[in-house]
């Protein structure tokens, strides 16, 4: 099956800092930096958008995830925070603050609310991996990796994936019930371009944005490249799954300042968390 992307939004309704993205239970899509930096945009399933939230002064978002209760969590890379947003009141609070972070970049979330955050140092070509417990306690899991970026948990919540953008590698760890990582191994290494956000479907296939190449790579749980989905534009930054059956993929594309979409054959893990 050849997958083809189409535009969900018009181009340049977001800044070149467009990232996120994440869907709520109703299928609305949220992404950062709508119209200007430091905002959250809301896109309805028909593609219409609005400036939904302005973050506190000095905060700029990157990755977004929802927990099972429906709260939004945002990696605030300028404030060294993980922010929590109450969806009804739009009240923003600091869920976790860690000044030792270079920046929280992308995040993923376990079913029990535990968050893992990537933490790149772009200038040095290094990065860290952090865990944020449901209490907000922050723990350094690994340091002095490559430029950590995309991070995701497998659908059985027994593995954790972390990629390194500049080094073009994806690592996989065993993830224990108490959220410890072990048995680090290389899933795949690419020869060109770079890596950004990634998400799993319910079968454990990993969809990875190939920043600079303008494709989403679909990988098997064993690291086999199954296919590439071509996008309009080159600088795809992240993706998520939604739609009525969880089989719609939404991709943020920075050089086009908008969201593109394509259909897949299995629901995404993030959609599955809403419906288990």
Automatic annotation (TrEMBL):
- Entry protein name: SMP-30/gluconolactonase/LRE family protein
What species does this protein belong to? Paenibacillus mendelii
Q: Which Pfam families does the UniProt record give?
A: SGL (PF08450)
Taking every annotated instance into account, which residue ranges of this chain make up the domain SMP-30/Gluconolactonase/LRE-like region? Answer: 19-254
Q: Which InterPro entries match?
A: 6-blade_b-propeller_TolB-like, SGL, SMP-30/CGR1_Lactonase
